[in-house]
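Team,

Forwarding the record for the chain on the shared tracking sheet. I've put the sequence and predicted structure together so nobody has to dig through attachments.
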Amino acid sequence: MQKICPSLIIIALLMWGCKEQAKAPREVKQYTIEQFFQTEGVGGGSFSKDENRILINSNRSKIYNVYELSLADTTVKPLTSSTKESFFAVDYLPGTDDFLYSADKGGNENDHIYLQRRNGTVTDLTPGEKEKAMFYGWTKDKRSFYYGSNNRNPQFFDVYKMDSTDWKPKMLYKNDSGLDVGSISFNERWLVLTKSVTSDKNEMYLFDAQSKQTKKLSTDSLGDATYYPTGFETTDTHLYYITNEGKDFTYVVKYNLETGTKENFFNTNWDVSYMSISEKGKYHVIGINEDARDKVLLFDHASGKELEMPKIEGGYIAGVTISPS
């Protein structure tokens, strides 16, 4: 991340102000208060089993609820009807039309993970009274999901695996050291752990569940730096993470889990915000913060060739979700 001298910022603002005074007044489009209140926030984006629908959350009802968006005609069907708490879409239960969503109670910020069946029945899967739970993702076979929970100790988040047949949690990682789990390998052997130090520095570790050994991946030799795991190769051969170690901008590193060697996977003259690999490893997506605006890049994962993204009239692409097939 590039540092700019404060005096240069002041000079730039003054020069900009003088230049604007020399121009003719710019016409600004006016909107009514009614139009303003019709602004809609939309999130989520999980594909249904037939890939004809998308699970989203929207505040079109003045509070966030879960909806189903048809890809054929863009019609939206409400799946929940909360009037007090905001409901946020998590994902469809693989192979079904049932789905998971997240919500707290009365604004207590203790989010729980809920299962809603297609017939409307709802089950709280993380029912601890003071529990806060966070969905981490599905196992490779789609029969279970990982999540973090502070039910055992309100200070730390342990990692659990919940089977979709009996819905009973099984602890995978007991967190007694204040480390946050950032990523889990598909074979469950490797866990990436992070620890905040300051706003400009954190530490990253690799935990081997087989040997019970923890290895520090971050370094203190090049000054303050940040490290954030983005995920594992689908074959569990490599780990990808984002860092600004030794550079002005954040970039992506590819780490070989067998040899411990690392290579610069992607960098540019802007900060890399995120990276994700599609479910079958065919594509990878990289988001960069280009001049204070999100820019999404799509690549063929095997060749590294950048693919052309569609043009959006009157807007820009800020995120991408790739269907399983």
